Amino acid sequence: xxxxxxxxxxxxxxxTFIFSLEGTTQGCNIAMPMYCICLRPLMDALATKTGPDxxxxxxxxxxxxxxxxxxxxxxxxxxxxxxxGYGYHPEPDKSWIVVKAELxxxx
Length: 107
Hints:
Blueprint: E1 8-12, E2 16-20, H1 31-50, E3 54-59, E4 62-67, H2 69-82
Antiparallel strand pairs: 1-2, 3-4
Helix pairs in contact: 1-2
């Protein structure tokens, strides 16, 4: 259910708008604390799958990981598998992996 209990208009460049029907909207004072609280169980579940070879950080709906390549791959696979159950939907088309030049052949 949407935080404000009604449809909220989000304005788009060009004068059009879209309706927000669930969650919070950008600019809502409770949005960031809510994201932190809601994503913590997902982050904990991911950490148990990757162990110490992968560190992760989330800022709002942007998640990232750093560490050994196989651990990052495990993190990503688990994020895709577990994320939707927590309301988090990874977007592979908008994601990048940065690899040191000397490790590119193992990636």
